[in-house]
Specification:
- The protein is an alpha/beta fold.
- The chain contains twelve helices and eleven strands.
- The strands form three sheets. Strands 3-2-1-4-5-6 form a six-stranded parallel beta sheet, with helices on both faces.
- A hairpin with a 6-residue loop joins strand 7 and strand 8.
- The protein is globular and about 55 Å long.
- It starts with a helix and ends with a helix.
Length: 353
């Protein structure tokens, strides 16, 4: 029964990351998962003992592309690592705790995932998190630039609209910045948009795809339901507006439902694992891996923007354009620019003070 459950969880993660694959591609992906043909990949999770970090660590332990799983936090990591290490999957698990062990945790990493920081609380915006989480991200990125400067970095710590620019500035100062290797994880917005769209359009969620562009907070989140597949002709303009609003407010919905006792940790861990899986596939040479992410970009006037990104052996292979937008989406794009610009500038200013 346990083996069946494990296979089910693994297959769910793979299905969500591969819904657009053809039968031939799926066959190739299955082959790529075998330990004989999959390269050795070390993944480090920074903030592994937290609300997102623990379920994320579990999901990364289930990923057969991971050969070494390094779990780091300021406290509590030995217990998490011991617990996760008992799972009978490929990766070797090691736990690290405190500043003095951060270097060991990072050395040799191919992918670093950062969910570290404090969670949102009722009445707290992502911007309220800034002063605490910005300092945490800055120090962690300084360590990354020293111990694993060539690793892909998946930034989950909020506010992503500011923490990604902070990371970029830290790496620039260290002389290690590669815009192809820094990602803001906006996958939870995509996950939510898919779920909400499928429910409203009454279509199977497994086959749904919805690009989400812009940023990762409030009105900066812009789901492009006009490009959603499968296409639904049953949704009114009001339905689209309601779906957009719910996607933008998804984090608040969870914070309020948990009544001050947590934020969107489980769904964020799932989304983080899906995006990490896509990055590993790209590193391992799987073709046509495309996901949305907040990256350095020239498709708008802003230096960073979330859109579809083609992933490959060097990280970002190509930042894809926005495609055709509805009038409603064009308005949304225009209105999000000032807020996103301010968040980016705030991050840059913090990193350089």
């Amino acid at each position: 029964m346990r083996a069946t459950m494990l296979r089910s969880v693994e297959s769910a993660v793979r299905r969500a990351a591969s819904t657009r694959s053809s039968a031939t591609s799926t066959h190739l992906l299955r082959r790529s998962y075998s330990s004989e043909s999959t390269p050795e990949r070390k993944v480090a999770v920074l903030g592994a003992a937290g609300g997102i970090g623990q379920p994320l660590s579990l999901l990364m332990k289930l990923n057969p592309q991971v050969s070494s799983l390094s779990l780091y936090d300021i406290a509590g990591t030995p217990g998490v690592a011991a617990d996760v290490s008992h799972i009978n999957t490929r990766s070797e698990v090691k736990g690290y705790m405190g500043d003095e062990q951060l270097g060991q945790a990072l050395e040799g990493s191919d992918l670093v995932i950062i969910p570290a920081g404090v969670p949102r609380k009722p009445g707290m915006t992502r911007d309220d998190l800034f002063n605490i989480n910005a300092g945490i991200v800055k120090s962690l990125c300084e360590a990354i630039s020293k111990y694993c400067p060539n690793a892909l970095v998946n930034m989950i710590s909020n506010p992503v609209n500011s923490t990604v620019p902070i990371a970029a500035e830290v790496f620039k100062k260290a002389g290690t910045y590669d815009e192809k290797k820094l990602f803001g994880v906006t996958m939870l917005d995509v996950v939510r948009a898919k779920t909400f769209y499928a429910g409203k359009a009454k279509v199977p969620v497994d086959g749904v795809n919805v690009p989400v562009v812009g940023g990762h907070a409030g009105v900066t989140i812009l789901p492009l339901f006009s490009q959603a597949t499968p296409k639904s002709n049953d949704l009114s303009d009001e339905d689209i507006k309601a779906l957009t609003k719910r996607t933008q407010d998804g984090g608040t919905e969870v914070v309020e439902a948990k009544a001050g006792k947590g934020s969107a940790t489980l769904s964020m861990a799932y989304a983080g694992a899906i995006f990490a899986d896509a990055c590993l596939k790209g590193l391992n040479g799987v073709p046509d891996v495309v996901e949305c992410s907040f990256v350095q970009s020239s498709i708008t006037e802003l230096p960073f923007f979330a859109s579809k990104v083609r992933l490959g052996k060097n990280g970002v292979e190509e930042v894809l354009g926005l495609g055709p937008l509805s009038d409603y989406e064009k308005q949304g794009l225009e209105s999000l620019i000032p807020e996103l610009k301010a968040s980016i500038e705030k991050g840059i200013k913090f990193a350089n003070k």
